[in-house]
Each structure stands twice: as C-alpha cells, then as structure tokens.
Amino acid sequence: MADEPASARVDAWLWAVRIYKTRSAATAACRAGHVRVNGERVKAAQAVRPGDEIRTRIEGWERIVTVRRILVKRVGAPVAATALTDASPPPPKREELLYIPLRDRGAGRPTKRDRRDMDRFRDRLFDEPAPDDVD
Fold first, then answer.
1. Residue closest to 48 by CA, chosen among 70, 29, 21, 23
2. How far apart are CA 12 and CA 20, in angstroms?
3. CA 61, CA 83: separation in Å to the nearest integer?
4. 66: three-class secondary structure by DSSP
5. Is the dihedral of CA 17, 19, 21, 22 positive or negative?
C-alpha cells in the first residue's frame, strides 16, 4: 500500500491492531512501563516502524509482536492480523495458575493468627507431601 505512513505512535498502533481495547489503555500501559520497543521502555509518542519488536505486558502475560505494517486507525480483525507477527509464548493453562486466596474487602488488616494460617497454606502449595501425610 503506497499511501501507508512510514511510522506511527506506539500507543495508536497498539490500539489499531487490537492489542489494547482503547487508546487510553495503551497510553496508560506505556506510562506504566509495560511496553518495550526493541528492548527499551518507551513513551506513548514513540514512533514504531516496520520490523520493530514490541513487547507488552497484559494481565501478567507477555505479548511479543513484530510490526509488519503501520496502521494509525482501528481496523477489522482480519486486517489487523496482517499488520503484525505474533511471537508470544502460549498463555499458561488455568490449571497451572496458582490459586491465591483473597481476603474479603473491608476485612481489615490480618491478625497474627491469620498471617500464620496464610503462611501455612502457601507452604503446603509449594511443598511435596510428607510420607506420613499420604493416605
């Protein structure tokens, strides 16, 4: 496409290829340091060009994409898929995710007894069962 721009803002490109739902979310991710272009943290106005590698962290999962085409306006999913090459590792399975119990909101600061109970629970998750614990 001859009328494509040579570069675009990183936040606009991430939004246009549907990595983030809104441009403001992409801008916030850049501000928080979750976006790297060619290994360096960038601001939202950083220009991206074809061939650049973009790493972004979304909900604890790293997304690695390479820019193939420059887009500045949001496009349909099939067109957005042609603008990038996805080299991300597969997301972890739900069974592999660590279950961490959450306290009720407004429950206050945990007591010493609560903290000990939480520590015991966490230790059981990471330790192998002892031979006398097996039924």
1. 70
2. 10
3. 21
4. strand
5. negative
Question: Three-class SS of residue 89?
Answer: coil
- The span from the CA of 108 to the CA of 115, in Å, is 12
Which of these CATH numbers, 3.20.20.70, 3.40.630.10, 3.90.580.10, 3.10.290.10, describes 8-91?
3.10.290.10
Q: Catalogue the long-range contacts made by 26-31 (C-beta closer than 8 Å, 24 or more residues apart).
A: 29/56, 29/57, 29/58
Q: What is the pLDDT of residues 16-59, one digit of tens each?
A: 999 999 999 999 999 999 999 999 999 999 999 999 999 998 87
The per-residue pLDDT for 60 is 73
What is the model's pLDDT at position 41? 94
pLDDT (tens digit per residue) in 71-99? 989 989 999 999 999 998 887 676 666 66
Could you give the CA distance from residue 69 to residue 81 in angstroms, rounded to a whole number?
A: 10
In the numeric block, which tokens belong to residue 94? Answer: 């739900």
Block residue for tokens 């972890």: 92
